Amino acid sequence: MLHTIGVIEKIERRKLCIAYAYVAVSQYYYVLMEFNEAWSWAFKAVYELQDKSADILKLLVISHAIRVCSVLNKLSTARKLINQLHTYEKEIDQNVDVDILLNIACYSLKADLAKDSINSYYIALDSRRNLFGYYNLHTAIVFVDYAYARYVCDYSTTDFNEAMRSILQGIFIMEKIGLPNDNMLLVNAGRIKALILEEKALDIMDRGIDIYIHDGIRDLQADGIKRLLERMKRNMLNEAEALHLKALEVSLKAVGMKALLTAKSYCNLGRLYQSQEKYTQSEQMHLKAIEIKESILGKDNPEVALSLGHLASLYTYQLKKYQEAEVLYLRSKTIYETTYGQQYTGLLYDFQGLVEVYRELNDIEKCNQYTENMRRFHETREAWLHEVHTATDENCTKDDFSLEKFKCILNECACDK
């Protein structure tokens, strides 16, 4: 495709618009998690558009730019593009409408609005099944995206049944229509299944014992149930490990060691080995993930903060390295606050970790400080969500579908356009 694009670009006075070809290349790099390259092509796609280009093409190209902005944490830019798209009041083809909805769902998940994201994915899933049928890759991809959004949102309830049902359907469809085992879409679906399996495995011992073991059951029965639950947990974690190792193998083959996709696999394995009580291996995986992410993204990126928090958790709850954990939590906290502000959910995990660290270090003043931070976070969360949902962009004008306006937004331009 790149060769064909290169040939077309060299045609003098060409009239053929290849904006969607640029989008296709951007989507390829997006799947490989090479987001800067994806952004470069998404940006080119917008600038390839002309005022006389079809509205459908403009909608698809700009909507894709929203997705790439979101994963790069250009959330303000993504929000402005969404607001501007919402000024378009003509009837939109259903397939294009669903495409826009999916890209906005991606923004919502990155902007810490997981429930909004779930609602968007649910509507998109219903529409995709109506448009393409059940056994179709378009439908399978939305099942996978919906499953991941459910996984993120359901952390607060630890009920991952809906997430598991959705990911199993996505994988089933992909296998049924013949995707090879090393296809990146199928491997990514397996990675998400592994994340859900891990959480369900950890929940088995907590909720399983509460459900089955109580004062009315004889000790012999209780021991038997406990052994059964432990075997179930071990089997689920082993399956998750196999899926993560497969993802790492495919990633190393596709993009090599120094890639965000590979770092993601190391990060996931680090968490899994912590759950399997393989603490030395867990630490090694987390350190690898941090090294790769910092080399690609720099030291102050939220993806780095995510891995810092995972390593800090290992140091806090298993290895008892409290001073090292404190440094990691504080660094993660600073990155999140700088990038997202004071209401990002990831901060809550840092606060919880710091409370535990300072409790163990017997630093009562700091322990109380972060306990208070957690209380304030919960207290102000709903007000923040309301503000996000009701915010308007005064720069958006009704039916203003000018390409210059969108280009200004992408360039973060402050001119009067």
Write the layout of secondary structure elements.
Layout: H1 2-9, H2 19-31, H3 35-48, H4 55-71, H5 75-85, H6 94-110, H7 114-132, H8 137-153, H9 161-176, H10 184-212, H11 219-255, H12 260-275, H13 279-297, H14 302-317, H15 322-340, H16 345-360, H17 364-390, H18 403-410
Keywords: TPR repeat
Organism: Aphis gossypii
TPR repeats: 263-296
Question: What share of residues are in beta strands?
Answer: under 5%
Task: Choose one word for the global shape.
Answer: globular
Order of helices and strands: HHHHHHHHHHHHHHHHHH
Rg from Cα? 23 Å
> Biggest sheet: strands, sense, closure?
none
The beta-strand count equals: 0
- Structural class from helices and strands? mainly alpha
Q: Please, what is the oligomeric state? A: single chain
InterPro entries: APPBP2 (IPR042476), TPR-like_helical_dom_sf (IPR011990), TPR_rpt (IPR019734)
GO cellular component, one term: Cul2-RING ubiquitin ligase complex
GO molecular function: ubiquitin-like ligase-substrate adaptor activity
Keywords: TPR repeat
Written account of the structure:
Helix 11 (219-255) packs antiparallel against helix 12 (260-275). The protein has 417 residues and is mainly α. The protein has helices at residues 2-9, 19-31, 35-48, 55-71, 75-85, 94-110, 114-132, 137-153, 161-176, 184-212, 219-255, 260-275, 279-297, 302-317, 322-340, 345-360, 364-390, 403-410. The protein is globular and about 75 Å long. The mean pLDDT is 88.
